[in-house]
């Protein structure tokens, strides 16, 4: 009996396998039938991609089509905002804490960006989705105090899910590190207001020596030596370049910006601005250690009206500009320089297999003259000389929307990775 059972068992097993395969085929074939008729059938069943990246099968190839520019659009009301307050987020610096210091209006916090032609391409920031995407990764914010302002906004938005812990390796506040332990995600600011090596004026010297020294062909090692361990690096720079400076190249003076020194040519700040970005991009392209994604976050303009920053200028508007409002001449110049240098570097990046991306947020931020602290970044009764702040941004406020753009771009990066995998599978 035992021999008979052993002899018949394989036959029963084969029969079971055949039956199982037959049932599976009868189930799957009807589901696949629409795909044979139209290779894009399943893609059509998916909801529209929020970054507006559409994957298609065309002649047996998987392709992508960007159907709109997410950075061209207008601000529309968002009554659900803000998503945190000055009492729920500890990362807000005093001079950006507009609510604490008595700003009377609230409307400036309740807007969101709507791109032209693709309204859902930049959804409101989803902190949980962001943290899941960043699990096990690192992100650096390289630049000046507006860059730090951007990072603090991100911390506040993520506070809806989790607060980070201080994981700093340096005591210097300009180079902190914050880790979200549940997600093993670390963010860090790198203070470098010019992106290139610079020295500040010596406060002990006479006033006429109140000049920065900028070494335009030497990237600032405080960030270039550290970025190798980061998956994402967001660089930006702007307002510090307006300060009087002496320019050095090959360690020799080549000119200056508003230095008023004899026998030194005033090359204007746009010369130094272009050179600084060219040098910064070159440092990234030449880096052997950095294999992540670099984002250029373009210039965030100031909005002084009625005078310069030190001549009583202020920013008291309570509504965004309309989308057809023309940028001021200097903002247009600096933005154009950034784009030209980025495109130049991007061509080289493609040859080297480096990934450079553009967060082209200048126009969106230009339309927000209502979002600065003005006089509400300090106690109104402060007995000191303070200027109205029309450079930085209130928290909560318009700068939070930079993270809407950032997440949309990160999703696009993720989609492109999936696209590459699909192409590989079909090749």
Automatic annotation (TrEMBL):
<dbReference type="InterPro" id="IPR026057">
    <property type="entry name" value="TBL_C"/>
</dbReference>
<feature type="domain" description="Trichome birefringence-like C-terminal">
    <location>
        <begin position="122"/>
        <end position="409"/>
    </location>
</feature>
<feature type="domain" description="Trichome birefringence-like N-terminal">
    <location>
        <begin position="66"/>
        <end position="119"/>
    </location>
</feature>
<comment type="similarity">
    <text>Belongs to the PC-esterase family. TBL subfamily.</text>
</comment>
<keyword id="KW-1133">Transmembrane helix</keyword>
<keyword id="KW-0735">Signal-anchor</keyword>
<dbReference type="GO" id="GO:0005794">
    <property type="term" value="C:Golgi apparatus"/>
</dbReference>
<keyword id="KW-0812">Transmembrane</keyword>
<keyword id="KW-0472">Membrane</keyword>
<dbReference type="GO" id="GO:0016020">
    <property type="term" value="C:membrane"/>
</dbReference>
<dbReference type="Pfam" id="PF13839">
    <property type="entry name" value="PC-Esterase"/>
</dbReference>
<feature type="transmembrane region" description="Helical">
    <location>
        <begin position="15"/>
        <end position="36"/>
    </location>
</feature>
<dbReference type="InterPro" id="IPR025846">
    <property type="entry name" value="TBL_N"/>
</dbReference>
<dbReference type="GO" id="GO:0016413">
    <property type="term" value="F:O-acetyltransferase activity"/>
</dbReference>
<dbReference type="InterPro" id="IPR029962">
    <property type="entry name" value="TBL"/>
</dbReference>
<dbReference type="Pfam" id="PF14416">
    <property type="entry name" value="PMR5N"/>
</dbReference>
<protein>
    <submittedName>
        <fullName>Uncharacterized protein</fullName>
    </submittedName>
</protein>
